[in-house]
Amino acid sequence: MSFLEGIERIDELDGYERSTEDYVLLTLILVTLDYSNLNGAIFTKEEVMKTKDTIIDTPLYVIPDIFEAPTEHSKTFPKLEKQSVIVGHHTASKIIQNDGKEHLEVTAKLYKSRYPELVASLHEMHLSGQLFCSMECSYNSEEQTINGRILKGIKFIGNALVEEPAGQYSKSLSWEVARKSNTELNLPEVASNYEINYLEGIENLN
Question: Which residues lie below 8 Å from residue 5, measured CB to CB, with a gap of 6+?
């Protein structure tokens, strides 16, 4: 199964000038280190350094409203409601400093060719500074402190674009459209390289 399944080879249609815009690279702050979020969860630098790369190849999804704007995250993740859209997947992670704090920054690849209207709406929100995210994770235990709950044994399993994030700094940082020439872009080859892997265990609820 491929995320390109069902997409028509429109490059072969008469009169169609194929776009050279292939996908979007979006960077986001996933979590802020050693800082309590609105749920009281604290992700220490020690824990995040051990597990930061578990976000790679996990889905970036959105539950859009009728205006293609993000709403909330799935209440049943990794099962997804029928209206959920997996709009991309994560490709990189690193620790950065921003606003005087340390954060886990992630890069996600958005499927621009599959969801052009939705991605265009997300771009507008990014430009206005209103594109937020809320990560999904599992953990083995937690330690109660006066500042919140320190989560231990963390594994990042996904990320949602949302209207109201739990993390104060969890928002988009950059948006880059990657371009390929017509000769470089081969849709069947792209599809074959992305057989189901990051979607493993992700389900849509009817």
Answer: 191
H helix intervals, the chain: 45-51, 116-127, 187-193
> How far is CA 164 from each of CA 42, 123, 131, 160, 174, rounded to the nearest angstrom?
18, 17, 9, 11, 19
Runs of H (alpha helix) within 17-175: 45-51, 116-127
Q: Which of 135, 133, 140, 137 is nearest to 156 (CA)?
A: 137
Which residues face 144 on adjacent strands? 149
Q: Is the dihedral angle over the CA atoms 121, 126, 128, 130 positive or is it negative?
A: positive
Query: What is the residue-level pLDDT of the chain in tens, covering all 206 positions?
Result: 333 333 333 333 232 233 445 799 999 999 999 999 999 999 999 999 999 999 999 999 999 998 899 999 888 888 988 899 999 999 999 999 998 999 999 999 999 989 999 999 999 999 999 999 999 999 999 999 999 999 999 999 999 999 999 999 999 999 999 876 554 444 333 333 333 344 555 655 54
Whole-prediction pTM: 0.79
- Amino acid at position 158, single letter: G
CB hemisphere CA count around 199 (13 angstroms): 14
Cα 153 off chain centre by: 21
